[in-house]
Amino acid sequence: MCDLMPASQPPEKIGKMKKLRRTLSESFRSIAFKKEDSGFDEICVTKMSTRSCQGSDSVIKPLDTIPEDKKVRVQRTQSGFDTFEKPASQVKRVHSENNACINAKGSSAGKESPKLRRHSSPSSPTSPKFGKADSYEKLEKLGEGSYATVYKGKSKVNGKLVALKVIRLQEEEGTPFTAIREASLLKGLKHSNIVLLHDIIHTKETLTLVFEYVHTDLCQYMDKHPGGLHPDNVKLFLFQLLRGLSYIHQRYILHRDLKPQNLLISDTGELKLADFGLARAKSVPSHTYSNEVVTLWYRPPDVLLGSTDYSTCLDMWGVGCIFIEMIQGVAAFPGMKDIQDQLERIFLVLGTPSEDTWPGVNSLPHFKPDRFTVYSAKKLRQAWNKLGYVDHAEELASRFLQCFPKNRLSAQAALNHEYFSNLPPRLWELQDMSSIFTVPNVKLQTESGDSIQVCARRNSHGKASSGSKH
C-alpha cells in the first residue's frame, strides 16, 4: 500500500503519489459534505482498495462491483423517509445520491474513518425517525379501553394519517400480554384485508402501536345505514372478511374476537381485520385455550358451554353472526342477560343440541340438558326474513351457524360458495396485498342515497364497547 512505499522509489513518482493522496482527501471531504446535506440518516466511510501503488491504478470502487447483499435500498419522499427495509439505526451503508458507495483509505492512518452523521438543518439537530415517540403528532382521541387509548395521529416522517394505539405500562405488571401478542402477530401479517402495523414505539411508560388510519368500522357503518345493507355491499364485505380470515387461518392464527367493531372500513370500502389483542397462534397438536373470548353476541355455543378445545371454526361462527347482521340490520343473537340467555337465543333458532346432533355435547362443562328448553331447529329465514331475498344467502349462513363446531364451513371453502358465483373471477386470482377494488367493475353500491364517504366518522382501532376486552 502507498503508506508502505519503498524508499527507493524515484522522487518524481513520490511527488505524484503525494499529489494523488491530497486529491483523494479533498474528494472525500467534498463527498462527506454532500452526504450531510443529502437527507440520509447515516453514512459510513470505510477503506478504499487499490490494486497497486501505481497512481494510474488507484481507483474508487464503483457501485456495480459491490455485492447485492451489502446494499440497502431506501425510498425517500420530500419530507424524509417513506419506507425502508431496515430502521435508520441499523443502516450501515447507504447509496449516495449519485448511486456510488465510497470505500476510502484514511490519508494518514490505516484505520477506518469515523461515521459521519448528518443534520437536517443547523436549527434542527435531529429529524423525525420511525420508532421515535416524537415522530407522531396526536390529533384527537378516538376511543379508550381498559388498557389502551387510541388517537388519530399524523406522521412527521411522511405526513400520513395514522392510528396510535397507546398502551399504558405499569411497573408491577409490565407490558400487557395482549399488546405483545398483537404486535408480534401483526408484524408478520401482510394482507390488504388486515390492518397494517407501521411502527412500534416503546418507552418506559407506554407501548404505542402505529397503524394505518382507517376512517370507520363496520359497526358504525351499519349504524349509519340501519335496516340492513345493500345486498351487493354485504357480498363484498363478506368476501373481504373471508379473504382475510383465510389468510390468517392458513398460518394457524385464530382471531378469537370477531365483531363489527373490529372490522375497519376504509373510505373506498376496503374491509380490514383489526384488534388482534385476543388473537392466538394455534399450534399442532391442539392445546386448550381460555373460553373467556369473543364478545358475547358473537361467541359460539361450544365456547359458551365451556369448551376450550377449538380451532378456526371458532372464528367462523362469528362470520355467520356478522353476515346475518349485515343483511338483516340487527344482531343475530343479542343476549341481554348472561351466558344462559345467550344460549337460549341460539337454541331457539338452531335447536337444542343432543348427542345425536352434536357428538360430545354432554361432556362439555356447562351443558346440563335439564337447564335448557328443548327447541326444534327452524329455517333461518323464519328468524331473519331478509335471508330469503338473496340467492344462496340462507344456505351459506346455515353452513356458518352450526352448533357442532366441526360442521362449520371454513373460510377458504366459503370463498368458493355459490353465493359468490356472480363476482368477477379475477377476485380469486389477486395477490395478498391487492385490494378487491383493483378489479374492474368491483365497487360499493350507494346505501340509501348516501355514499360510504359520508358515513366515515371515527376510526375504532381498539375502541372499547360493551363486552369488549379493550
**Strand residues, percent:** 5-15%
| CATH topology (level 3) name of the largest domain | Transferase(Phosphotransferase), domain 1
What is the average of the pLDDT values? Answer: 74
**CATH architecture descriptor of the largest domain:** Orthogonal Bundle
Instruction: Please summarize the sheet with the most strands.
Output: 5 strands, antiparallel
CATH class of the largest domain: Mainly Alpha
For the record, what is the CATH homologous superfamily label of the largest domain?
Answer: Transferase(Phosphotransferase) domain 1
Radius of gyration: 30 Å
Structural class computed from helices and strand pairing: alpha+beta
Give the end-to-end Cα distance, rounded to a whole number of Å.
65 Å
Provide the low-confidence segments as ranges.
1-8, 27-125, 451-470
Helicity level: 10-25%
| Tally of contiguous helical segments | 11
Integer count of domains:
3
Global shape: globular
The total strand number stands at 14
Summarize the helix and strand pattern as letters. Answer: HEEEEEEEHEEEHHEEEEHHHHHHH
- Strands of the largest sheet, in order across it? 5-6-7-9-8
Q: Can you walk through the features of this model?
A:
By secondary structure, the protein is an alpha+beta fold. The chain has three domains: 2-7 and 33-117, no CATH class; 133-212, Phosphorylase Kinase, domain 1, CATH 3.30.200.20; 216-455, Transferase(Phosphotransferase) domain 1 (Transferase(Phosphotransferase), domain 1, Orthogonal Bundle), CATH 1.10.510.10. It has eleven helices and 14 strands. It has helices spanning 11-36, 177-186, 218-224, 231-249, 301-304, 313-328, 339-350, 380-383, 393-400, 411-415, 452-455; strands spanning 42-43, 74-77, 80-84, 116-117, 136-144, 148-155, 161-168, 197-202, 206-212, 216-217, 253-254, 263-265, 271-273, 280-281. The strands form five sheets. A five-stranded antiparallel β-sheet has the order 5-6-7-9-8, covered by helices on one side. Strands 10-12-13 form a three-stranded antiparallel β-sheet. Strands 1-4 form a two-stranded antiparallel sheet. Strand 5 (136-144) and strand 6 (148-155) form a beta hairpin. Helix 4 (231-249) runs antiparallel to helix 6 (313-328) and helix 6 packs antiparallel against helix 9 (393-400). The longest helix is centred in the first third of the chain and has 26 residues, at 11-36. The radius of gyration is 30 Å and the shape is globular. The protein starts with 10 loop residues before the first helix and ends in a 15-residue tail after the last helix. The model is unreliable at 1-8, 27-125 and 451-470 (pLDDT under 50).
